[in-house]
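cron nightly-structures :: item 1 of 1
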Amino acid sequence: MLRSWFLFVLTLFAAGALSAAHPGQLVRLGFLKGEVILAPEISDFIDAAVVDYGYQYGAGLRADGTVAAWGSSYYQDIRPPAGLRDVVKIDGGNPIVIALKADGTVATWPDMRVNDYSFQPPLGLDDVVDVGAGYSRCYALKRDGSLVGWGEYGTVPSGLAGVQAISIGKGGYNLALKRDGSVIGWFAGNWGQTVTVPANLGDVVAVSAGYAHGLALRRDGTVAAWGNSADVQPPAGLREVVQVLAVQDFSYALRTDGSVVAWGRGYFGTAPLVPEGLVAASRLAGGRNDVVAIVGGRALDAAQAITLPAGYDLSLDATSSPPVGAVYQWWHDGMPLAGATARTLTIDAAQPDASGRYEATITDATTTRTSAPATVEITTGPGDASYLANLSTRGRISPERPLIVGLVLAPGATARELYLRGVGPSLVDYGVAGVAADPLLQVFHGERMIGANDDWVARTPAGSTYPSEDYQAVGAFALPAGSKDAAMRASFLPDRYTAVVRPASGGGGVALAECYDYTFVQEYAGLAYGGTMTGRLVNLATRGEVGAGEHVLVAGFVVRGVGPQRVLLRGIGPTLSSFGVPDAVAGPRLQLFRGSQVLAENSGWDQPATRAEIVAVAAATGAFSLPDGSADAAMVYHLQPGSYTLQLSAAAPGTGLIEIYEADE
């Protein structure tokens, strides 16, 4: 499902600077130029951890404090501990990911040992304000400025105190930034090397440790570098930096405009890589050999107004380095916002009245500070209209019961590109059991099949391809190279179409049918600035097996645009019999969710209070009529822009139909 929103991180240490991102994708900067290695779902990633030397997995931290993991390990389960929430920072070592929670406690995973050393945090460890992980070691910085280390090489220099931040290199190199502005370096374990840090470092706000070199970010946005790596000094004139990252023998700097600058030289003369045109990074993360950037936004100067189209969810994050136990208060145009006392302020489907100046005061045990300001302007598009943008349906498929998705494009519109997928094997990465091993995607215009795809890496019929950037543009998760999932993008003239996902081989299983309005993604970006819509999806429907438990038919959809959109939502069962469906489900129950909240539900459409409106809207949208007193489900609802889920269930299994109609007032 595509969730459209923007995240702003208001930094405390760089006066007048803030970064903005629309996260959800990680782009590899290291050794495979520009390859997208992660988009497990559209998620608000604000930090990442990479474990990449013999293990090949990682994790992404969302703004809501939860963590997603991906990749694989030959050794242990890479999923985070069950129930892990309220995380404020993550880091990756080899072979461990470490997480700092808002309450000052620490979690690590996988649960494994190396050379009889455990990576589980010491018992009673709390009051932690920073964490880091490297090769066979973990560190935790406590509020009192002391450092705790564990694992095979978790040594701590004698007498080290007064520390305010740490960076743990993926080799053996470590750095600590002290409260007096000085920097201390040491090699872990028995590496037998020494670290010489320049004595004239001053006004440092962050450090980063590589294999044998270090980087320091000064408050004025300049960078200092030292160590044994070749070409260790940054390019002349490098300024306006908001993050530094040292990985192996390479150095990276993230600038306020979202661009990334890289320098250094490896053992064989290799240079670090940055994908051409990367100007939307909001955070960098590195493993032992690899670097990724969270992308999708751009860094901005705080003095500039941040202009966003209305209808997007807006999230403001007070700081990228939150003090443990801090108390927050958000302000809008100089007035305190009632109840806005969390680190993150979220405004669902932001409208023009959300425009203005935002800042947060942050109080910890010693002081009260004010974040850099964010000036936000929410603009409206022509007509103040909202639209259906995409549909994603999950259910069980078999040769007898495929997933069927119906699509209707508004009359009079020009041709539109739709991006369609039938996903089975890749659902395993998201904890789905019993998946369809080899789904087949077919597209029909009436009775005529006009396109099909079995394995997504193959080219499809004329006019239909799967460029690597398709799923990024619409916000879909990535499909692994060589998987048996199906996908295609093609142009469609205004009319009715059907997409079918069925087993290409085998007995079937759980599958996901997805439809994204690819053209809409391109158009909507310009709506607030005078662009026009050339057409849209006005009706989405999906048919499949309906029952209880794992047999519930689930359809997710997105309303995009400005202002509420009236929709007709139906869950059809008994009436399907009149269309020749032999196993129509007898008594379906339809529920509408936003997140985990149930907004509405119905298990018998013919109710006195709502019957007249349902009949009138069905007639206006062209939906077929429902018999008086039938057990089909239906409701009319006004939805603000955002992501929604429909669930159709029944006590006894059968075939059911979910329908979503755009219903003009």
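cron nightly-structures :: done
The two ends are 27 Å apart (CA to CA).
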